[in-house]
Amino acid sequence: MRTFLATLLIGMGLAVSAYAHHSMNGFDRAKTINITGTVKQFKWANPHSWIEVEVINDKGVAELWNLEMTAPGILARAGWKSTMLKPGDKVTFHVRTFDAHGNLIGEQTAESWSLDQLKGTIDKGQFVASTDDVVQAGLVKATIGGLSGTASVRIFPPFPWSETFDSFAVNSQPLGWVNTTLKFTVRELNGNKVLVKLTEGSSLLSRARAYLGPSDLSNYTIESDIFATQKRRQQGDAGVIAQRYVLTLYGNSQMLHIEPWQPEIKRTVMRRNTQRNT
After folding, report:
1. In what order do the strands lie in the sheet containing 50-56?
2. The overall pTM is greater than 0.85
């Protein structure tokens, strides 16, 4: 077993800059606001992660700031990450408290530890993942008085992986997958369970990419069965991502693209389907 060290930050002070996602209308992108305060909650979730910060203003009054961040998939590529383990691994969590000015108070002993949607045991901060050969995703929570902190944990078994979605309830999302909430869901189609790209609701969610596994995976092959529907002479696009390369089937143009990064067209390979079925 490997032993990991992780830290839960409770009452953490920090300086941050707030940025908007989706449309930037109504936001002054030329202006950066720096704030220092106490982190009350950090939520690693789709479609946006959030940091809730208590800030003392110039009048000495506490204000609550909600800082909207981008999706976990984008944060992960920028260096943010949740703790990722393998079945049977151990990870030891330590609780450190900070004052309202971001000064370290010291390491504390949590009054209680709990698990949310994780299989395994936790005792005095040491979490031992179950040996079940399945993907897991959940939270480790520590509580001191009226303060609590959580750490996101994802557990991935060794290769090979195979996912038929049969074990998931209808209208749920696969555990451990990133950027699926409000964008993808499990449904039944022709007697089988499939992962469906949602088209209901905001048009801002009509195009999305889902990610699975640690961000440092390499030397693997991904294979998927894809089915696209046609509506009002519009056909959906679908594809797979492997080691940051994207293989995409474009429905309307009937073209296959291999893209290192979509705007970088110099290294994009395209092939047109000359036998289009009607």
Report:
1. 13-16, 35-43, 50-56, 62-68
2. no
